[in-house]
## 1
Amino acid sequence: MTMIARLFATVSLLSLPAAGIAQVASAADDGKQIERTFDAQISSADQLAWLRDMSSAPNHVGSPHNRANAEMQLALFKEWGWDARIETFQVLYPTPISTTLELVAPERTTLGGQEPAVAEDPSSANLQGALPPYVAYQGDGDVTAPVVYVNYGMPDDYDALAARGISVKGKIVLARYGGGWRGLKPKLAQEHGAAGCLIYSDPADDGYGERDPFPRGGGRPAGGVQRGSVQDMTQYPGDPLTPGVGATAGAKRLTRATAPTILKIPALPISYGDATKIMSRLEGPVIEGRARGGLALAYHWGGTDAVKVHLAVKSDWSLKTLYDVIAVMPGKTRPEEWVVRGNHHDGWVFGASDPLTGQVALMSEAKAIGALAKTGWRPDRTIVYASWDGEEPGLLGSTEWVEAHAAELARKAVLYINTDGNGRGFLYAEGSHDLQHFVNAAARDVTDPQTSVSVLDRAQANVRASGYGDTSRRDDDAIALAAARAGGDMPIGALGSGSDYSAFLQHLGIPSLDIGFGGEGGGGGSYHSIYDSFYHVTKFDDPGLVYGAVLSKMVGRLVLRAADGPRVPARYGDFATTVSRYVGEVKKLAADQREKDRALRDLTREDVFKLASNPDDPTIAPANRGVTPLIDMLALEDAADRLGRSAHDADAAVERMATLTPAAQARMLALLRSIDQLLIDPAGLPGRPWFRNLVYAPGTLTGYGAKTLPGVREAIEQRRFADATTYVTRTAAVLNAYADRLDAAAVAAK
Amino acid sequence: MTMIARLFATVSLLSLPAAGIAQVASAADDGKQIERTFDAQISSADQLAWLRDMSSAPNHVGSPHNRANAEMQLALFKEWGWDARIETFQVLYPTPISTTLELVAPERTTLGGQEPAVAEDPSSANLQGALPPYVAYQGDGDVTAPVVYVNYGMPDDYDALAARGISVKGKIVLARYGGGWRGLKPKLAQEHGAAGCLIYSDPADDGYGERDPFPRGGGRPAGGVQRGSVQDMTQYPGDPLTPGVGATAGAKRLTRATAPTILKIPALPISYGDATKIMSRLEGPVIEGRARGGLALAYHWGGTDAVKVHLAVKSDWSLKTLYDVIAVMPGKTRPEEWVVRGNHHDGWVFGASDPLTGQVALMSEAKAIGALAKTGWRPDRTIVYASWDGEEPGLLGSTEWVEAHAAELARKAVLYINTDGNGRGFLYAEGSHDLQHFVNAAARDVTDPQTSVSVLDRAQANVRASGYGDTSRRDDDAIALAAARAGGDMPIGALGSGSDYSAFLQHLGIPSLDIGFGGEGGGGGSYHSIYDSFYHVTKFDDPGLVYGAVLSKMVGRLVLRAADGPRVPARYGDFATTVSRYVGEVKKLAADQREKDRALRDLTREDVFKLASNPDDPTIAPANRGVTPLIDMLALEDAADRLGRSAHDADAAVERMATLTPAAQARMLALLRSIDQLLIDPAGLPGRPWFRNLVYAPGTLTGYGAKTLPGVREAIEQRRFADATTYVTRTAAVLNAYADRLDAAAVAAK
């Protein structure tokens, strides 16, 4: 469900000496011939053939073609020499029986329904078995009510409405996509008392604001609709009925009514063509600035009885079967250490770009590794290739598999590498920061087909070219720019959610990476619509699947390098530097929030908002939420400082590893192997115990976007100040445990 | 021709002790009764009646109703007790004989022509004698050529085109309004070899991006067109044929062919309805980000033969007569010192908002001062009320009058106060910074009718409310915000151009102010269109002309306070602080530009732009223009420092004035009276000798927007580095002359 290509995001520069390089370099030397052989097996033609076949019919969970795709992959994995199987799970996956949307006032007009066919795109007219636009895990219902436009439907939008005295209670909110994850929009609407929720794709964010609408270009057309999940994955992903355990046939299940991740109000996604018919009729003050989108009209908040909509959704709430394809290549020297590599195979309709561009790259890798194995080569570690089902509705296939195999994974998994939809453009990478240098080293060795420099060089050029003349840079951008300018490693971003790494990283603490290319081409204009087709991918997103092959080469290197040699080449200094930056951010957050609270109190006391209010758009002061107290973060600051010193020593010890006795080496490797799992606190995050990683989490109010040091950061943002203090201690504890382990490893190496 | 209400702009805070307050306060005490009497005469009902009459027919230069308005005012001034006359000038003022615009490829469609009537607005259907949409002083011609979209048509837009290898040579550029003054668009197009120029009002900047289109709201509708002047006023304003001298009947004249301020290529303004018909057909790379506007389509640069337009303009280039109405109220004790107050009376069509909302406020003031005079009161100084003709085509009436009376004005004028179109909302003020406290003191004494606090308090509340939560503040905003928070004087902005103060301030150095209200209501959506009507003004811009009365009270105070007492209460510390800030800005500009040049050289050397280029929108590196050299600004820095000290001493001396002998007082006042004229350098600015003020000028590449310390600042920006050095010296010289005069005044007071 990856939405857009992100560039290398935002993390600290490396400031420590290049420990780990020795391993990577030597692995690269040993592996050079292997990687050349691997590369020779990567074929865009293969990928095109698989893509055409797998995207030839709707392949959502429960569809015949979804199962056929799983079985086809099973057969291929076996043919390529893998030990492959299909694992099934029984999950609650609602599909619409009927969806109804009508404007009923000021006049009656039918809206909604399936997206229109486009002559150039043959599959768009071949929708047998396709689901209509809907959002999975909305609440079913039948309501008629006035409409309130809520912009992105995020908390600050509700503040803007409150300042105008506009309530959404009993009304249907109309939110635009963007500004936060889809599922938060109906959730926040429900919390504010709304009776229903519509979500549309505004052309400023996803349409002619960026590119020509399909079919002239790859952008979203007026009739295009973004499907998706609105399951409350900020509590836990996976099957709503089986939190924390695999959804096997005999698993104990919640009921639909008691499952907390299913919404209670009906919701539907709509096109901007339909949204225009509603928006053009809304009344109330005109919206200026960032709360308006790109429709050709003045935006109004609405909320009056002048505009009413009838919204009804009825779903089939039966259990459906997931088909996860799992393929294993046993390791020869360390078979109990697993490198896991995954992508999902289910789509919303044809799923050509999302997920199949990533899926066919994974298949190319598996074919090439199989070919290596046929020459007699075997990896040191066991390689597990996984083709997940049910990612779209809520990371179902990966989450249930991880939950079902949690104990074994905690013992064995040393790395999870994820991909999802892929496109033409620039490398992006997010993940555990001790793997930052590992990713950069691979990116130096993969050639960009458009420029013939490495994909790392091209990513750096992009950051540098975008940075020229940009004077309004954020801190994160400045760090990336400085790294690009120096020609060193690029910072990788932190993982939030939105694809299948979540259960690995955030539930178990397995170090994880998410890799892809993008930023050029179609740019997501077909995302979760019927236009996400073979035609669209090969015309706009990645013609010839040239970047499909590049992705295979990039990820293949990561898999092969992680699977061979004494250890996955982590560099702890990168992690320590990054954590130190996060601690600084959290301190600044608390100080800035306090200052803002203080300013608001002052402005309110002096009636400033009232005096400045425009009678055409009367506003009152924002609600007074008190002043953020001083929060003592000493324990966290100390832990970050200590982590830096311990990481420095451990990285130095790793560099000396070749000089150690085999017993000392083994002690050290055993201590470091599962170090990332120490970031897990069994109690989890406040209010959402499934999320147990105290460094990386998706935000409860971002959904996909990462919140680092989430126990502390979100407690401050959400004004749970007691939690903030508690999680300063807990977070410091996991960081200290990590540092203890580093120290032990450094001692073991002596 | 004021386009939009600006809030209190951006200048340094006052940090000097409140010299001058004594005078203002005592004047206010003496004048309290006078001001009460004055206020009692201000009547919105009067203003409504005059507005209805004066906007009842087209009143552009040369129209019968324009002359009738002048004669009506003459009669009123006389009736109110003023010594009034009409002064006429003969100016070149082209009016269209025919305007033609057609799309000729890919299909033939007629575009352009008069704007459509709107049922709610009676005058929009009553266009007898109205001019069609056109821009005055374009070059006439008949061309058919491909169209290139050039965004705002400013220099950085041509850089973006050059990076894509797109030339405008021989083509017709299509520019949107905004980003710089209208007249620069065809001028820069001509310099780049274009054959013609179209300018349209993009709805993002002027339309549904801000408010509901007329008649639902006050915003510009799809058929609305902004007329205006494209005379090259950055060289000199006024009659193009008589630069520097009054356009009297016998004046020596240039020919049309030799007048440098008349363009050579044809140009027309068009509606966004028409622009859409062109834009939707353009080819080439899609434009993302800030270079696109708010039309409901993907923007393309175009430039291919696929889209061609036929553009033809033919004008009547005969001389027309201007009617300036000049009314004098002789001073009783200092008749040789003049306080001049002006607004213009010509419009583009009905001119209800621009200029008549300001004009009727001026008339209210004149009536009230006349009433005061009938009670036997007389000002100390002579008050001159001026109702200018021909401002719209190029500040014609004020410029010719100033040029014709230059010697007398240099001797006598101590202040010029300008207004133009006015609206509901917040006070804004721009002008000579030694008058900053004078303006603030008056603003403390005028009540805002919507909130019952002073208009200063409301302006401060607006700055403070807008500043809440805004983390991306520019330095200027931060200064205004700090001032507002402290409750002290608000910084006033520097004057560029765009209304009738130009000749006073920038040609003669007479200290000047421009005052108005705005920021609420219609917001300029009728600007220079047929919809700038009595209906529009009273429905949207200033219902009941409530703020017309507020403007009269604000400006009336300034006039009465300036006309009475020993001196116009200037405070030199405010000027010195502001100049010091400007010097800092200019130093930073040079340093930043050098850094940016250096970065570009580095990026180009390493092929970064090529590597980052997206094949869908291939771009090359920006042109290498060399590296900005180090520029020695020591003389300017020293002059600013010295000015600060001299101002401090002079302000202190002024505060002691009441304790001096009459002879010492007289010496001091005589020295200070014309001090602002010392900022004039007879040689003027590089390449435009008419502009002689070395502190305040309109920018050659902003048109309206001010460039302070323009000789130095623009030389750096435009990479004329020899000029920069020369004007460091010249600017330091005028500042030192000003400081010398302050020192002499301080000595005189001893």
## 2
Amino acid sequence: MTTKTPILGLNRFEFNDTQSIDTQLASHIRRRHRTQGENSVLFYKQPIEMVSARGTWMTDSYGNRYLDMYNNVPSVGHSHPRVVEAMTQQALLLNTNTRYLFSVLENYSEALLETFPDDLSNIIFTCTGSESNDIALRMARMVTGKQGIIVTENAYHGNTSAVMEVSPSGHKRQQLPPYVKTIAAPDPRTLPMGISLAEKFAEDVRQAALSLESAGYGSAALLVDTIFSSDGVFADPVGFLAGAVEVIHQFGGVFIADEVQPGFGRTGSHYWCFQRHGIVPDIVTLGKPMGNGYPMSAVITRPDILATFNDETEYFNTFGGNPVAAAVGMSVLNVIKDEGLLENASRNGLYLREGLSCIARDCTSISAIRGAGLFNGVEFTCPEAGGPDTPLVQTTINRLRDEGVLIGAAGTFGNILKIRSPLCFSQEDADFFLDKLGRVLKGLRPT
Amino acid sequence: MTTKTPILGLNRFEFNDTQSIDTQLASHIRRRHRTQGENSVLFYKQPIEMVSARGTWMTDSYGNRYLDMYNNVPSVGHSHPRVVEAMTQQALLLNTNTRYLFSVLENYSEALLETFPDDLSNIIFTCTGSESNDIALRMARMVTGKQGIIVTENAYHGNTSAVMEVSPSGHKRQQLPPYVKTIAAPDPRTLPMGISLAEKFAEDVRQAALSLESAGYGSAALLVDTIFSSDGVFADPVGFLAGAVEVIHQFGGVFIADEVQPGFGRTGSHYWCFQRHGIVPDIVTLGKPMGNGYPMSAVITRPDILATFNDETEYFNTFGGNPVAAAVGMSVLNVIKDEGLLENASRNGLYLREGLSCIARDCTSISAIRGAGLFNGVEFTCPEAGGPDTPLVQTTINRLRDEGVLIGAAGTFGNILKIRSPLCFSQEDADFFLDKLGRVLKGLRPT
């Protein structure tokens, strides 16, 4: 059995590497370590000091430019002028809390909720995806009266105390509480003969729910990132989630769709990734790209669930739903629409996957290309042994950095290149990336 | 025994009041309720639709102006142009996460840490005070190996699952876990003969710690808001916290200073309220005024505590410490310095308390005036019965609203006017407020 390598520990600068890097950067790293501790994580063997970014491109302190295939937060493009303008104008006018009324918030709430199925008509504004998932867990336990939560093996849902309990990939010493059960990621290649992925995934949920029931916890929720980002990106076949949702409902639990990473049109065909599966979650959590970098997030749910939550607790979030967040959020929705970013994600995502398939023909290490829209994964496996080729991915990431491409890894073994550029990613960007990736992999091919 | 009225339930619009308010406002309230639920709290019997704010003043949709004696978030003044400018310039340039280096963050970290005692040299950036307190609780438990937390009876420290457990004032149905013990607020009027407040408060902590020890939990931390905001504002005598900190250390626990409300110079004499007590906490949490409304917060601690935390968990906060937050935070520090806001808080806070004392001479309902700098409380008690006069405070708050003053309440019974304007509060503002408060109280005086 392969030892688990936590994905968050991948692609990081190691402290004792300082000797090998130039004086200016080393001095900057020392300042970071002095204030944020030596465990403060920096990307790459050679960390990067960034100074500016626009659209899909970032520039470092030496003037080097990088195509951003990593950051899903500045989703409509780095430093988007319309978003900055909306933020500035509102900040000059009014920024306060939701104990007062301000129409910018009502306008935004209604516009955002319009992208959801009718039943999901209520919203709580928060500041981070972690805060949203923390609320979702409490809601699930309140409405079901149960404790157990089912998540995937390498799930990551955030960083509060409660959310860390359901985020196995964030633990340095793997230890989940007994009321958290993990199931395998929905990998279509692990199916027994004659069983569909939908059936397999639903059966895994059933077994976990049975085990939680016999342990006396019951199943409060099935909580999944709807594209299974940290598990390694699993998008297909469309609809495979439906059976699992039915099962959790049969056990009296709710289904929480974590859309923090795949939401806001990233998967191209729909605004929300759960829609690809033809399901309606009980609770949806949003975050990262919601404000294109402005700290904002939300929980979307049905009125009956919100009412139960409000009956138990007085929830108030100082910054959540403030007028600046609302103005920023509205500008993001407008940019997504006006610039046709869903269509762009579909079109250029497909173009990208086609290009990746071409590269795969010459690279026996690539064992799978998966994804939807502009959230994609490329899995690397040792051609002979068949196991995850984590070192190849690590080397590729660092070589691509030197070639001007920022990219990350996913999966329990970190052997999946995680590809998720801003949604304004163009065909030219795709060509640049594919060219660099092809060259880097050619250079690394065993001779 | 008086029944506990949760403070957060005070001063709120009640849903069935819609009939009594004008059509435009009623329609706005209905929109809010439709999206955020009918339990979404709005201030005042007549909620206010705000449209703009500058300095210490806010303006509603009818053009009415209000002196803001409530909001401690826009601490250097609503819509401060220097803060907005810093935010805009940085947002146009670069906004990304801390896995990259950017000097604006190192500059800000160093400037902020300079305001702390030398031992407190490490920082984790977060987005909300709740996230900071959630981390502080985890750190405390990790470094001590204990579970118990000691807080004051009406404490509020935030809204995550873990932090709600130590926030008795946020519970609608009071039920604390067995590992959370509450102690009385440090009220100098409740002392047995011959005992100082420092001795009484330390003894209360000792009793709570003993009880946690005998229950098998031990004491991980004493966690207090250093000005005891939600308990009703207790600032004096200077130094009274020192004995309690000694006691928690004797029991092997840490002292967490929650500076989310009293920090960043609000108390005038010092940057941090704990400094008034001549103590050095093990962990300090920051929030609300840190970005003058931009969602940002932090945990400050010693390197040994951060190292233990990092050893257990991989903490990453997507928005925390981003370049825009850093630029905003730096501009707030600069404005506090350049505009002499600590001195202003000291001077005009004193002026305010003197004016309140004059009003108290003619108002037998005022039983105490407490506070430091621009964080003050005025307690109202029934002159005959001696109990908390919550209705008088509620009426006063709503009358002041009609007179153009925004103000809130604190304390277990909500009978304390909580006075905390932005730090740019002027003597003219004080005169305006004192005049209005005096008139309102005269009008309400029993005849």
